[in-house]
Design brief:
Elements (H helix, E strand, L loop, with lengths): L1 E3 L4 E9 L6 H11 L9 E4 L4 E8 L5 E2 L2 E9 L7 H8 L4 E7 L5 H17 L9 E6 L9 H4 L9 E3 L8 H29 L4
Parallel strand pairs: 2-6, 2-7, 7-8, 8-9
Antiparallel strand pairs: 1-2, 3-4, 4-6, 5-6
Protein backbone atom coordinates (compact mmCIF):
# COMPACT_ATOMS: atom_id res chain seq x y z
CA UNK A 1 0.00 0.00 0.00
CA UNK A 2 1.37 3.38 -1.01
CA UNK A 3 -0.19 6.50 0.51
CA UNK A 4 0.45 9.87 -1.09
CA UNK A 5 -0.97 12.63 1.11
CA UNK A 6 0.09 15.35 -1.34
CA UNK A 7 -2.13 13.95 -4.09
CA UNK A 8 -4.62 12.46 -1.60
CA UNK A 9 -4.26 9.01 -3.15
CA UNK A 10 -3.72 5.48 -1.89
CA UNK A 11 -2.45 2.84 -4.30
CA UNK A 12 -2.73 -0.91 -3.81
CA UNK A 13 -0.67 -3.48 -5.70
CA UNK A 14 -2.46 -6.56 -7.03
CA UNK A 15 -0.43 -9.34 -8.64
CA UNK A 16 -1.80 -11.99 -11.01
CA UNK A 17 0.17 -15.20 -10.48
CA UNK A 18 -0.01 -18.60 -12.15
CA UNK A 19 1.71 -21.00 -14.57
CA UNK A 20 2.71 -20.02 -18.08
CA UNK A 21 -0.12 -19.48 -20.58
CA UNK A 22 -2.83 -19.78 -17.91
CA UNK A 23 -4.40 -16.42 -18.84
CA UNK A 24 -2.75 -13.85 -16.56
CA UNK A 25 -1.91 -11.47 -19.38
CA UNK A 26 -5.31 -12.02 -20.98
CA UNK A 27 -6.97 -10.95 -17.73
CA UNK A 28 -5.10 -7.66 -17.63
CA UNK A 29 -5.65 -6.97 -21.31
CA UNK A 30 -9.38 -7.51 -20.82
CA UNK A 31 -9.53 -5.26 -17.75
CA UNK A 32 -7.54 -2.57 -19.52
CA UNK A 33 -9.86 -2.67 -22.54
CA UNK A 34 -12.99 -2.36 -20.40
CA UNK A 35 -11.85 0.78 -18.57
CA UNK A 36 -12.25 4.30 -19.90
CA UNK A 37 -9.09 6.18 -20.88
CA UNK A 38 -9.65 8.54 -17.97
CA UNK A 39 -9.70 5.62 -15.53
CA UNK A 40 -6.43 3.94 -16.47
CA UNK A 41 -2.84 4.55 -17.37
CA UNK A 42 -1.05 3.18 -20.43
CA UNK A 43 -0.38 -0.53 -20.51
CA UNK A 44 3.31 -1.23 -19.94
CA UNK A 45 4.71 -4.49 -21.31
CA UNK A 46 8.13 -5.85 -20.41
CA UNK A 47 8.35 -8.45 -23.14
CA UNK A 48 10.91 -11.05 -24.10
CA UNK A 49 10.95 -13.80 -26.69
CA UNK A 50 9.01 -16.30 -24.57
CA UNK A 51 6.86 -14.45 -22.07
CA UNK A 52 6.09 -11.02 -20.70
CA UNK A 53 5.28 -9.11 -17.56
CA UNK A 54 2.72 -6.34 -17.95
CA UNK A 55 1.33 -3.78 -15.60
CA UNK A 56 -0.77 -0.64 -15.44
CA UNK A 57 -2.47 1.60 -12.91
CA UNK A 58 -6.11 2.47 -12.84
CA UNK A 59 -8.32 4.63 -10.67
CA UNK A 60 -11.55 3.03 -9.55
CA UNK A 61 -14.24 5.65 -10.02
CA UNK A 62 -16.87 3.27 -8.61
CA UNK A 63 -15.13 3.08 -5.24
CA UNK A 64 -14.63 6.82 -5.06
CA UNK A 65 -12.70 7.88 -1.98
CA UNK A 66 -11.79 6.03 1.19
CA UNK A 67 -11.10 8.07 4.31
CA UNK A 68 -10.70 11.10 2.07
CA UNK A 69 -8.17 9.36 -0.19
CA UNK A 70 -8.73 8.46 -3.84
CA UNK A 71 -8.35 4.71 -4.34
CA UNK A 72 -6.09 3.41 -7.10
CA UNK A 73 -4.78 -0.02 -7.99
CA UNK A 74 -1.63 -1.16 -9.74
CA UNK A 75 -2.17 -4.46 -11.55
CA UNK A 76 0.78 -6.69 -12.37
CA UNK A 77 1.27 -10.07 -13.97
CA UNK A 78 4.30 -12.30 -13.53
CA UNK A 79 6.07 -14.13 -16.39
CA UNK A 80 5.13 -17.79 -16.30
CA UNK A 81 8.19 -19.43 -17.86
CA UNK A 82 10.39 -21.37 -15.41
CA UNK A 83 13.51 -19.34 -16.21
CA UNK A 84 11.88 -16.20 -14.75
CA UNK A 85 11.58 -17.48 -11.20
CA UNK A 86 13.61 -14.58 -9.76
CA UNK A 87 11.49 -12.04 -11.65
CA UNK A 88 8.32 -13.51 -10.16
CA UNK A 89 9.73 -13.10 -6.66
CA UNK A 90 10.64 -9.46 -7.34
CA UNK A 91 7.17 -8.64 -8.71
CA UNK A 92 5.60 -9.98 -5.49
CA UNK A 93 7.40 -7.41 -3.33
CA UNK A 94 4.94 -4.90 -1.91
CA UNK A 95 1.92 -6.98 -2.94
CA UNK A 96 -1.43 -6.11 -1.32
CA UNK A 97 -3.60 -8.69 -3.06
CA UNK A 98 -3.14 -11.86 -5.12
CA UNK A 99 -5.08 -13.39 -7.98
CA UNK A 100 -3.94 -16.92 -8.70
CA UNK A 101 -5.01 -17.91 -12.20
CA UNK A 102 -5.34 -21.68 -12.57
CA UNK A 103 -5.50 -23.42 -15.93
CA UNK A 104 -8.47 -25.79 -16.27
CA UNK A 105 -6.69 -27.99 -18.84
CA UNK A 106 -6.27 -31.58 -17.57
CA UNK A 107 -2.59 -31.62 -18.49
CA UNK A 108 -1.89 -28.42 -16.54
CA UNK A 109 -2.86 -29.52 -13.04
CA UNK A 110 0.76 -30.24 -12.07
CA UNK A 111 1.81 -26.84 -13.41
CA UNK A 112 -0.93 -25.20 -11.31
CA UNK A 113 0.28 -26.98 -8.18
CA UNK A 114 3.95 -26.16 -8.74
CA UNK A 115 3.19 -22.51 -9.48
CA UNK A 116 1.04 -22.19 -6.36
CA UNK A 117 3.74 -23.79 -4.19
CA UNK A 118 6.34 -21.48 -5.68
CA UNK A 119 4.16 -18.43 -4.95
CA UNK A 120 3.84 -19.46 -1.30
CA UNK A 121 7.60 -19.99 -1.05
CA UNK A 122 8.33 -16.58 -2.59
CA UNK A 123 5.96 -14.92 -0.14
CA UNK A 124 7.84 -16.48 2.76
CA UNK A 125 11.16 -15.24 1.38
CA UNK A 126 9.91 -11.66 1.30
CA UNK A 127 8.48 -11.92 4.82
CA UNK A 128 4.83 -12.65 4.06
CA UNK A 129 2.55 -15.62 4.54
CA UNK A 130 -0.45 -16.73 2.52
CA UNK A 131 -2.70 -15.90 5.48
CA UNK A 132 -1.60 -12.27 5.43
CA UNK A 133 -2.33 -11.46 1.80
CA UNK A 134 -5.91 -11.30 0.46
CA UNK A 135 -6.28 -13.75 -2.41
CA UNK A 136 -8.76 -14.82 -5.06
CA UNK A 137 -8.39 -17.92 -7.20
CA UNK A 138 -9.61 -17.80 -10.76
CA UNK A 139 -10.31 -21.07 -12.56
CA UNK A 140 -9.71 -20.03 -16.15
CA UNK A 141 -10.48 -21.73 -19.48
CA UNK A 142 -13.77 -23.19 -18.24
CA UNK A 143 -14.96 -23.35 -21.85
CA UNK A 144 -12.66 -26.28 -22.63
CA UNK A 145 -14.66 -29.42 -23.45
CA UNK A 146 -12.38 -31.44 -21.16
CA UNK A 147 -11.98 -28.83 -18.42
CA UNK A 148 -11.06 -30.29 -15.05
CA UNK A 149 -13.95 -30.59 -12.55
CA UNK A 150 -13.96 -27.87 -9.91
CA UNK A 151 -13.54 -30.45 -7.12
CA UNK A 152 -10.18 -31.39 -8.68
CA UNK A 153 -9.03 -27.79 -9.08
CA UNK A 154 -10.01 -27.02 -5.49
CA UNK A 155 -7.27 -29.34 -4.23
CA UNK A 156 -4.72 -26.54 -4.14
CA UNK A 157 -7.13 -23.96 -2.72
CA UNK A 158 -5.79 -24.76 0.74
CA UNK A 159 -6.88 -21.42 2.20
CA UNK A 160 -10.39 -21.73 0.80
CA UNK A 161 -10.05 -18.39 -0.90
CA UNK A 162 -12.94 -17.03 -2.98
CA UNK A 163 -12.91 -18.87 -6.32
CA UNK A 164 -14.30 -17.62 -9.63
CA UNK A 165 -14.82 -19.49 -12.88
CA UNK A 166 -13.65 -17.63 -15.97
CA UNK A 167 -13.10 -17.65 -19.70
CA UNK A 168 -10.66 -14.75 -19.75
CA UNK A 169 -10.26 -14.68 -23.53
CA UNK A 170 -13.98 -13.82 -23.75
CA UNK A 171 -13.92 -11.51 -20.74
CA UNK A 172 -16.08 -13.86 -18.66
CA UNK A 173 -15.28 -13.67 -14.94
CA UNK A 174 -12.50 -11.11 -15.46
CA UNK A 175 -14.13 -8.08 -13.82
CA UNK A 176 -15.76 -10.26 -11.17
CA UNK A 177 -12.30 -11.51 -10.21
CA UNK A 178 -10.90 -8.00 -10.03
CA UNK A 179 -13.84 -6.60 -8.07
CA UNK A 180 -13.61 -9.46 -5.56
CA UNK A 181 -9.90 -9.02 -4.84
CA UNK A 182 -10.29 -5.23 -4.71
CA UNK A 183 -12.99 -5.51 -2.04
CA UNK A 184 -10.87 -7.93 0.01
CA UNK A 185 -7.88 -5.61 -0.13
CA UNK A 186 -9.90 -2.55 0.85
CA UNK A 187 -11.56 -4.45 3.69
CA UNK A 188 -8.19 -5.47 5.12
CA UNK A 189 -6.78 -1.94 5.03
CA UNK A 190 -9.92 0.01 5.99
CA UNK A 191 -8.85 0.63 9.59
CA UNK A 192 -5.35 1.75 8.56
CA UNK A 193 -6.73 4.16 6.00
CA UNK A 194 -9.17 5.52 8.52
CA UNK A 195 -6.23 6.38 10.76
CA UNK A 196 -4.42 8.03 7.86
CA UNK A 197 -7.51 10.09 7.12
CA UNK A 198 -7.69 11.30 10.73
CA UNK A 199 -4.00 12.28 10.71
CA UNK A 200 -4.52 14.15 7.45
CA UNK A 201 -7.46 16.04 8.90
CA UNK A 202 -5.53 16.88 12.06
CA UNK A 203 -2.73 18.26 9.90
CA UNK A 204 -5.13 20.57 8.18
CA UNK A 205 -6.00 18.38 5.19
CA UNK A 206 -2.53 18.46 3.66
Amino acid sequence: MLVNLASKEVTFKIVYYGPGLCGKTTNLLQVHSKLKNSERSELVSLANREDRTIFFDFASVDLGTLSGLKVKFSLYTVPGQSIYKVTRKLVLKGVDGLVFVADSSPDRMKANMLSFQEMVAHLRKIGLSLKEVPMVIQYNKRDLPNALPLKVLERFNVRRAPAIEAVAVEGTGVMETLNTIAKLVLSKHASVLKGVGKRKAAAGGV
